[in-house]
Amino acid sequence: MNTMPTATPTETRQEARHLDALRATLAQRAEASGLLEVAYRTVDSPVGPLLLAATGRGLVRVAYEREGFEAVLGTLAERIGPRILRGGHRLDGPARQLDEYFAHQRTAFDLELDHRLTSGFRQTVQAYLPRIGYGHTATYKQVAADVGNPNAVRAVGTACATNPLPVVVPCHRVLRSDGGLGGYIGGLEAKTALLQLEEAP
Q1: Per-residue pLDDT tens digits for 65-113
Q2: Contact 137, 175 (CB under 8 A)
């Protein structure tokens, strides 16, 4: 009886590294030729795997695994363009800065951001959120007043819930007036973990 040889764990790891290198090369060539519309990669974090996506303008999406990475990539293909590849250099800076943030070495992000996935009042709110400093919080009501529309508390909540750049654009720092967490795109465990991380020395 003939049996096919099975790959050893070492061979499997080598093949995975080879595929990753091939993807990176393809993404770099597509980027250099101007064909790449969106580059993406996944990174590990204390709040679970995150998908990072960037265009030539900057970081366009940070997604939690619970959102469904395939669904997120599908939305990016529909809204930005179908030329999406894993890898490339666009995400080196965002990945490094997120690592620094989770390691308590960074309190603010310094990244080019592509805000095309949001507009109107939501974009106004999301542009304001980085003004809530590391280790601080604000209420939905305070944010509404600060962006000039004190009656738009619910709309502020919607803007936070639809934030395409969580963690980097810190919607996790916005709480209910009674001190409750409110909602969060990454789930309440992730929101709690981020707030606790920022409270730590």
Answers
A1: 999 999 999 999 999 999 999 988 899 999 999 999 999 999 999 999 9
A2: yes
How many CB atoms neighbour CB 70 within 10 A?
Answer: 9
53 DSSP β-pair partners: 40, 61
Cα(51)–Cα(80) distance, integer angstroms: 16
Using CA atoms, how far residue 194 sits from 84, 120, 136, 165, 179, in Å, is: 29, 27, 11, 14, 16
Select from 156, 149, 150 the least CA-distant residue to 173: 156
**How far separated are the first and last CA of the chain, in Å rounded?**
63
| Backbone angles phi and psi of 14, in degrees to 5 | -65, -40
Please answer whether residues 171 and 184 qualify as being in contact, where contact means their C-beta atoms are separated by less than 8 angstroms. Answer: yes
Query: Catalytic residues, which ones?
Result: 171
